[in-house]
Amino acid sequence: MNAQExxxxxxxxxxxxxxxxxxxxxxxxxxxxxxxxxxVPEIMDNLRxxxxxxxxxxxxxxxxxxxxxxxxxxxxxxxxxxSAGSTGPAAFDYTLPGRWRGLGSRHPVTQxxxxxxxxxxxxxxxxxxxxxxETEYHNFDALNTPADHPSRDTQDTFYLKTGQLLRTQxxxxxxxxxxxxxxxxxxxxxxxxxxxxxxxxxxxxxxxQIEGLYVDRHVSMAELKGDLTHFARQLMGPGVNIRxxxxxxxxxxxxxxxxFSCHVCGGKGCRVCKFSGWxxxxxxxxxxxxxxDIVGYDPEEFTGYAFGMGVERIAMILYGxxxxxxxxxxxxxxxxxx
Length: 338
Ligand code: DAH
Known about the structure:
With 338 residues, the chain is an alpha+beta fold. The chain folds into two domains: 85 residues; 227 residues, BirA Bifunctional Protein, domain 2. 40% of the residues lie in helices and 19% in strands. A seven-stranded mixed β-sheet has the order 1-4-5-9-8-7-6, sandwiched between helices. Strand 6 and strand 7 form a beta hairpin. Helix 1 runs parallel beside helix 4. The mean pLDDT is 91. 3,4-dihydroxyphenylalanine binds next to strand 8 and strand 9.
């Protein structure tokens, strides 16, 4: 080791210490040069093998290297600590209270949809989907709705400039499924619907329905009633019954409206059921053979039942929500209760 080599070594050591960006890298540089088995002690140990003429110079340079490097390491250490201190652990105040991040919860409408899907899945149904922007054909014509039916009126339906419309019901999903699939069919279809309703405590221009459709050989109205009863009891409680009232829908024949017995009073009559003992849910019926003709199913061979229900309505009954608008205001104090 001669004087020139030592000068080079010093420069390399100082450059490495200056380039260290964290405490661990800096410590590694220190150990490499100044540690017990580092370069500087090694040079010191070897001094006696160096020719006497060079020995003094080399010894002096090695000492310089040692002192300068040690100073630089100390200075860098402080610098690194200070810059880490502004963001790192040194600035952490353990006595500060933690930051509360509120737990989210699922929207009641989502909860009703998910529970309904779960119940019908367990009965062998799968979930189907259709577009919010529908053709008049799927929303009305294919569902055997006459051209002069009041629901087609522009007062009730949002029509788009393209001639399409925002679906007023999830029933068009029935048509889309049957167009694509041969029987047997067993689907439920949850989704958004739109009507030109003026908003009040029980109406909203944008709401949700869940559609059901079961087509096979020998499907009967008794099955419709049995399956809806099973669903009602799973959703509302084991004591709940259902009843059918005659009604009319163009796409079912015969058609019914169905009610659940009041889950609050058990049918005796209370405020929730307006003292009738029953809560109106929605419509259902046996698929009209004309609909089967339209989608190309043989009405002599197949029968089916269909039903629809309003999700908001069920959520309001289930959770005792008095006004449909509360479901859309997104007030977290309201939503976090469910
Ligand atoms: N789509 C109907 C409505 O919005 C509800 C309905 C009635 C659906 C009878 C059905 C059904 O599938 O069979 O009022």
